[in-house]
Design goal:
The protein has 17 helices and 15 strands. The chain has about 500 residues and is an alpha/beta fold. InterPro entries: Anticodon_Met, Met-tRNA_synth_2, Methionyl/Leucyl_tRNA_Synth, MetRS_core, Rossmann-like_a/b/a_fold, tRNAsynth_Ia_anticodon-bd.
C-alpha cells in the first residue's frame, strides 16, 4: 500500500474564509481526490490556528472569550469547506487537547536537548504577524502584509536555536533541489540563508493568556507559529503513532507565498531539531489578484468572495475556475468575468455541449439506449488510444502540482471528441439505413469517451461528473482509469439535461 499525506495551512480564525483560503484548500482537495482515485491511501488535513495575540484582541473587541470567538470562526471554516466540496480526512484545531499535548511534549524535548533558552529581547514587533521583524523586511515602515507598522517591544522570551540549523537547512536545499516548488521560492530562501537568520522567539510572556503554556514555565505561552506548525504532525499522533510512520515521509504541504518563511526557516529547523525528516515537497502558490491587478484584500474591496461565487455559479464551477485560471505558483487574477469565461467557454461550450448533443442523439436515434458498437476505424482507434494514455499523463502532472496543465490535457481530449462529432456527422449517417452500424459505433464511442472524461474530471468537478455518469446510465460508478470499452454498457438508458447552464453577466463592474 502506498501512502500520501496532503496538507493546507492551518488558517488563522480572525476572519471568515477568503478566496486565498479557498484556492489552497481546493487545490489540496483535488490532489487528494486524484491520488485516492488512483489507489493510494491518502490523508488530507486542513484546520485552523486558533491561538495568539490577534485572536485575543479580536475576541475582546467582539465581547467574547477567545475560545468562543475561535469556535465561531472555526465553524465558519468547516461550513465553507462543505459548501466548496472540500472534504478533509482530518480537521485540526490548535485548541484541541490532542494537539496541545503534542506541542507540550515537543517543547519539553527541545528544552531538554538544549535547543531552547531564556533571554531578554528588544526589537520591532509585528502584531499582525505576531513576530519580531527586522528593518530590512519593512517596506515604507511596515511589513507589506500588515496594516500597521511594528512596535518596539522589550520582553523576556524563550528562544529556539534556529541559527544553529542554518547550514544544515542550506545543505538540504542544495541536496534536494525539488523540495520547494516552484524553484524560485527555493532560491529566495537560499539567499536568506546566506546571512544570519538568528534564533526564533517561541514564547510570549504572561500578558498573553490565550495559547499553550510553556510546560516548564506556565507564565509564558507558546508562540503561535511554533504551535501551528506542529499541527501538521499532531493529527498523525507524533511521535509514536503508526500514522506518523506511514504518512509523514510522503508529506506534501500546500501553502501561499506569504507564509513561505515559517514553512522553511522555522519548520525545517524545528523538524531537524526534533529529529524527523522534513516534508517531501512544499508547494507554494502565488497571490490571487483582483480586477485592479493588486493582491486581493478586504480593505481594497477588490476580491471575489468564494462562498458568494459558489452560490452563484455552483461549487464545481468555482473549483474548476480556480484550478484552471491561475497556474499554481504564480500570481494570477480571479474575477467574476474570469469565472464566467471558464464556465461558458470550457464547461458549457466544450464539455457541456459534447455531453448534451451526444445524449440527445442517443435519445433521438437509438431510443435512449447506448448502442452496441460495430467495427472501429482509425478515428475510433485514435480516441481509444488517447483515452487509455490520459490517466497516467494526468496523474504525473497532478503529482507535480501542475493541475492547470492536467486539465488542459483533458480538455484537449474533449475538443478532440467534439471534432470527431463534426467529422463523422452522426445525424447524416442516421438518415441512411446503410450506415446504421456506423451510427452505433460513433454514438458508443462518444458515450465511452464522455465516460472516460467523467472519471478524469471527477476530482475537480465531483458533483457534475457524478451527475454525468448517472445520465450515461452508470449509477454509482466512481472507477478510475476504466479500460476502454468497459465504461458504458450497451443497452443502458440515458437521459438528457444541461450540465452547465450559462449565466448572464452580473450587473455592474465585477470585483
Amino acid at each position: 500500500m502506498t501512502f500520501r499525506y496532503i496538507t493546507t495551512p492551518l488558517y488563522y480564525v480572525n476572519d471568515r474564509p477568503h478566496m486565498g483560503h479557498a484556492y489552497a484548500s481546493i487545490h489540496a482537495d483535488v490532489v487528494a481526490r486524484y491520488l485516492r482515485a488512483a489507489g493510494h491511501q491518502v490523508m488530507f488535513v486542513t484546520g485552523v490556528d486558533e491561538h495568539g495575540e490577534k485572536i485575543a484582541r479580536a475576541a475582546a473587541a467582539a465581547g467574547e472569550t477567545p475560545q468562543a470567538f475561535a469556535d465561531r470562526y472555526t465553524g465558519a471554516f468547516e461550513q465553507a469547506w462543505k459548501q466548496l466540496g472540500v472534504h478533509p480526512d482530518r480537521f485540526v484545531r490548535t485548541s484541541a487537547q490532542t494537539h496541545t499535548e503534542v506541542v507540550s511534549r515537543s517543547l519539553k524535548r527541545l528544552y531538554d536537548a538544549g535547543e531552547i533558552y531564556l533571554a531578554d529581547y528588544e526589537g520591532l514587533y509585528s502584531v499582525g504577524q505576531e513576530r519580531f521583524v527586522t528593518e530590512k523586511e519593512l517596506v515604507d515602515g511596515k511589513l507589506p502584509e500588515d496594516r500597521d507598522p511594528p512596535v518596539v517591544r522589550r520582553e523576556a522570551n524563550y528562544f529556539f536555536r534556529m541559527e544553529k540549523h542554518r547550514d544544515s537547512i542550506r545543505q538540504l536545499l542544495h541536496d534536494e533541489p525539488g523540495l520547494i516548488e516552484p524553484s524560485h521560492y527555493r532560491n529566495e530562501i537560499l539567499r536568506l540563508l546566506d546571512d544570519s537568520i538568528g534564533d526564533l522567539s517561541i514564547s510570549r510572556p504572561g500578558r498573553l493568556k490565550w495559547g499553550i503554556p510553556i510546560p516548564w514555565d506556565p507564565q509564558h505561552v507558546t508562540y503561535v507559529w511554533f504551535d501551528a506548525l506542529l499541527g501538521y504532525v499532531s493529527p498523525l499522533h507524533y511521535p509514536d503513532g503508526q500514522a506518523f510512520r506511514d504518512f509523514w515521509p510522503t508529506t506534501r504541504h500546500v501553502i501561499g507565498k506569504d507564509i513561505l518563511r515559517p514553512h522553511t526557516l522555522f519548520w525545517l529547523a524545528i523538524s531537524q531539531a526534533l529529529g524527523f525528516t522534513p516534508y517531501q515537497r512544499l508547494y507554494v502558490s502565488g497571490y490571487l489578484l483582483g480586477s485592479d491587478g493588486r493582491k486581493m484584500s478586504k480593505s481594497l474591496g477588490n476580491g471575489v468572495d468564494p462562498l458568494e461565487a459558489a452560490a452563484r455559479y455552483g461549487a464545481d464551477v468555482l473549483r474548476y475556475a480556480l484550478v484552471r485560471e491561475v497556474t499554481f505558483g504564480v500570481d494570477g487574477v480571479i474575477t467574476h468575468e474570469a469565472i464566467e469565461r471558464r464556465l461558458h467557454r470550457d464547461l458549457a461550450d466544450d464539455l457541456g455541449n459534447l455531453a448534451s448533443r451526444t445524449l440527445a442523439m442517443i435519445v433521438r436515434y437509438r431510443e435512449g439506449r447506448i448502442p452496441t458498437p460495430g467495427p472501429y476505424t482509425t478515428l475510433e482507434e485514435e480516441i481509444a488510444r488517447r483515452a487509455t494514455a490520459l490517466p497516467m499523463e494526468v496523474l504525473g502532472l497532478i503529482d507535480d502540482m501542475k493541475l492547470a496543465q492536467a486539465l488542459e490535457r483533458i480538455f484537449e481530449f474533449i475538443r478532440h471528441l467534439n471534432g470527431y462529432v463534426a467529422v463523422t456527422e452522426p445525424w447524416a449517417l442516421a438518415r441512411s439505413d446503410a450506415d446504421l452500424l456506423r451510427v452505433n459505433t460513433v454514438l458508443h464511442t462518444l458515450a465511452e469517451g464522455i465516460h472516460a472524461v467523467s472519471g478524469l474530471l471527477a476530482p475537480v468537478l465531483p458533483g457534475s461528473m457524478s451527475q454525468l455518469r448517472n445520465l450515461l446510465g452508470c449509477v454509482n460508478d466512481e472507477r478510475w482509469a476504466v479500460p476502454w470499452g468497459q465504461g458504458v454498457i450497451a443497452g443502458s438508458s440515458v437521459r438528457e439535461t444541461i450540465l452547465f447552464p450559462k449565466r448572464s453577466p452580473i450587473d455592474g463592474p465585477s470585483s
